[in-house]
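A reminder before we start the practical. When you read a complex entry, don't treat the lines as separate problems. The point of joint prediction is that each chain is placed relative to the others, so the output describes one connected object in space. Small molecules and nucleic acid strands, if listed, are placed in the same frame. In the example below there are two entries. Take a minute to note the order of the lines before looking further.
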Amino acid sequence: MILTIAARELRSLFLSPLAWSILAVLQAILAWRFLWLVEGFLQVQPQLVSIEGAPGLTEIVVSNLFVWAAVLMLLVMPLLTMRLVSEERRSRTLPLLLSAPVSMTEIILGKYLGIMSFLICVLGLVALMPLSLLLGGSLDFGLVASGMLGLLLVTASFAAAGLFLSTMTEQPTVAAIGTLGLLLLLWILKAETAGAEGKDAILTYLSISSHFEAMLRGVFDTQHIVYYVLFVATFLVMSIRRLDAERLQE
Amino acid sequence: MSTEILVRVEGLERYYGEHAAVRGVSFDVKRGEVLGFLGPNGAGKSTTMQIIAGSLAPSAGQVIVNGADILDRPREAKRQTGYLPEQPPLYRELTVDEYLRYSARLHGITRKGIDSAMQRAKSRCGLNDAGRRLIGNLSKGYQQRVGIAQAIIHSPAVVILDEPTVGLDPIQVREIRSLIRELGGEHSVILSTHILPEVQTICDRVQIIHQGSLVLNEDLADLSTGMPGAELTVGFREPPAAGLLKDTFGLAHVESIGAGRFRLRPEPGTDPTDELVSRSVSEQWGLNELTPHRQSLEDVFVQLTCGEDPSAESPSSGVAEEAAT
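Here is the predicted structure of the whole assembly.
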């Protein structure tokens, strides 16, 4: 049942020009950025050779590319998730799901799985760029994998937050603005000072970007994984609650 | 129609904040019955149907569909109902086939059974040639048919249709009505409308809901014959006095409407027609008009929902297309 809903979601996404244009724009910008990074690396390469423990190809090109990918994801995610539920509500298709023998949990998980399958396609295309470096160089695969996982988890968190905000309203644009605001806030929440304590440490922990940065440096810590898993679970549960509440008290 | 009860609704209540949309509605639907739900706009028809379909939870009360409580065993209950909301829930970007396949899967039809289920639903709703068309490009009538096809694709025991003929042209209305009549053969149908003739042509039983409460629940056959207070209009060339008429025939009310014509309201349960004719012959009153006014569904509807006496309305017993909207 979840798969049925997810498949419909994915199909509708690809039937609209939105998904294609987002894929195209994302890919074009990242490709440009990628070229620029490679170019920069080639220029400094001679000096790097002489320095002990200097950052290599992976740190300079791949990690930077992933940061860019994450920021772009943050910007396009509201456009992708805004219509998940609010569009169904606006075009009055929600009763089809509500009167069908499926639970709220299945509806939300189906929708989330649908959007995630699309996002995994996007990330797959992004991952091809660093892998193309293998043609003329070597990569630190551990670092690439850690960064890739980080990017996936960040994207999954964005999508969960977007899905939740989409259940809140009937207007997709309102959901989009809300998602953008929430994600940006969570992104910049991190305290600027290093080694922060007290409330700064809490803010840093809450920030999406701090965990991502750690993973980009190759720090694979369950603490970061747990953060993202909790983040996704919280927003999915809240989405289910929200849909249920609507059935109970419109 | 068998006597087996498919849907039992008991003490249904639904509040939106302080506002009671439905209060204390109870009724049964038998297998194979077409039940017409009438009521002015905002009377609680749609809310009641949403609750039976399971897309809205009741504030109080119980809905049991074929033995399964909609709150305790929602999955089982929902599998037995097909629901067409007021606005058909269509994905405009899908084709008819894609959409029907999706709703069939949602209702738990196995992969093997899907093709035959789709074929059956499409041919019943006259959609055989429309399978590959985009729903967004279909006309309103066809979209409505897709909506109905979606509601019957899993052969539910109960089909719930919320105002299925709104906005259709007369020919489409006729087609949809005959489709509903046909559905009544094997499914139970609950149908809401505010078009009175629709109820008269396709329903077995009519319920009128007003301000959230059921005010009438009657078989249509009983309604057309046995409604109390049927009136007569009579005309005479040599009219007798109104008082004489009243006393002679034991009438409840006599009103002279000029030119030797009277409106007579007999006591409930009596029919003075035969006696009136024979007396007119023997007394040479010269009876030249005798029109019984059977109380139409419209009269009943207006009487129950507006709290007005139907005799205060115009004497026409014709049925208007829409009433009290």
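Discuss with your neighbour: Chain B has two domains: 5-224, 231-293. What might explain this?
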